[in-house]
UniProtKB/TrEMBL annotation:
It catalyses: [phosphatase 2A protein]-C-terminal L-leucine + S-adenosyl-L-methionine = [phosphatase 2A protein]-C-terminal L-leucine methyl ester + S-adenosyl-L-homocysteine. One of its GO terms (cellular component) is cytosol. It comes from Lottia gigantea (Giant owl limpet). S-adenosyl-L-methionine binds at residues 54, 79, 148-149, 175. It is an enzyme of class 2 (transferase). GO terms for biological process: methylation; regulation of signal transduction. Belongs to the methyltransferase superfamily. LCMT family. It holds the Pfam family LCM. Its EC number is 2.1.1.233. This is Leucine carboxyl methyltransferase 1. The keyword ATP-binding does not apply. GO terms for molecular function: protein C-terminal leucine carboxyl O-methyltransferase activity. Keywords: Methyltransferase, S-adenosyl-L-methionine, Transferase. Methylates the carboxyl group of the C-terminal leucine residue of protein phosphatase 2A catalytic subunits to form alpha-leucine ester residues.
């Protein structure tokens, strides 16, 4: 199984990649440089375009959810790492009633330290009774909590401490998180969410089509770093990605490979970012994108129209 340190290292790598892409001009994020130090590594254009597609598509689904609920909703980011979505939503006047991030305590401790020591981050958080401990942060509408996603009792306790209201629409986000959790345990997490949140939406970005040679090379590279994709059985194809939700209490799910997701994004934005860096072989990007997907699932007890949320513009 993947060691905790190895999984945390993948979070650090992803944050470095995001910062690099932001500095190249793929998207605007004035906060990521406050979260993660500047790295020395260069990243290939297909990697940068991949992160652009990942960030843009998740943002599109998330903003549709928030607008559909008229901001009367909650966001729970699973394995959030150094994600800066809270600050972006604050700037865009799209704040939900609650925004909660969950990650390993060693990660949340670092994030709490960054926030406490960086005025531009701290100033965006409600000044009313901010409570900071070594691993957790609680404010009026923003919460960071340290917990292991496989320990459902701890998750329940931490969400209660954050004042989560299970009766209102709640969106869960996971970016390359579930694949590091044994499929049976991630299935229990997905079912626990379905059982406890009557009106919910789930956005999952993750690997797919992992049974071919490219997927094997990807797993071998991670294994050499003592990092194992213990949940890879759910990543066999788009059908298995959707089925993990529909077999665990969710009303319906949809999924697209990232090549299709990329082509769903605004044409003017694609034209803009494709001018940033010359790409020698587009085939490399197509191959890489065919091994990642975006999945979204919903259950809509309140009948607010969650089935209408997709990547259409």
């Amino acid at each position: 199984m993947a060691t905790e340190d190895a999984v945390i290292a993948t979070n650090d790598d992803a944050a470095q990649c995001k910062r690099y892409a932001v500095e190249k001009g793929y998207w605007n994020d004035p906060y990521i440089s406050l979260m993660i130090p500047k790295g020395s590594a260069r990243h290939a254009p297909e990697i940068n375009r991949g992160y652009f597609a990942r960030i843009s598509s998740i943002r599109l689904l998330l903003e549709k959810f928030i607008k559909l609920t008229n901001k009367k909703c909650q966001v729970i980011n699973l394995g959030a790492g150094y994600d800066t979505t809270f600050w972006r939503l604050k700037d865009a006047h799209l704040m939900p009633q609650k925004f909660v991030e969950i990650d390993f305590p060693v990660v949340t401790a670092k994030k709490c330290h960054h926030i406490k020591s960086k005025k531009p981050l701290l100033d965006k958080i409600s000044n009313d009774d901010i409570m900071l401990s070594k691993y957790d942060l609680h404010s009026a509408n923003y919460h960071i909590v340290g917990a292991n996603l496989t320990e459902l009792g701890d998750i329940e306790k931490k969400l209660q401490e954050s004042g989560i209201d299970r009766s209102i629409p709640t969106v869960f986000i996971a970016e390359c998180v579930l694949v590091y959790i044994d499929s049976n345990k991630s299935g229990r997490l997905i079912k626990w969410i379905s059982d406890h949140f009557p009106t919910a939406f789930f956005i999952n970005y993750e690997q797919v089509n992992m049974g071919d040679k490219f997927g094997q090379v990807m797993m071998d590279n991670l294994r050499s770093r003592d990092c194992y994709l213990t949940g890879v059985s759910a990543c066999a194809n788009l059908q298995s990605q959707m089925q993990r939700f529909t077999s665990n209490g969710w009303a319906d799910a949809d999924a697209l490979e990232m090549n299709k997701v990329y082509n769903c994004l605004p044409t003017d934005e694609l034209r803009r970012i494709e001018k940033i860096e010359f790409m020698d072989e587009r085939e490399l990007m197509v191959q890489l994108f065919s091994h990642y997907c975006l999945v979204w699932a919903y259950k809509d007890t309140l009948n607010i129209g969650l089935e209408t949320i997709d990547l259409s513009l």
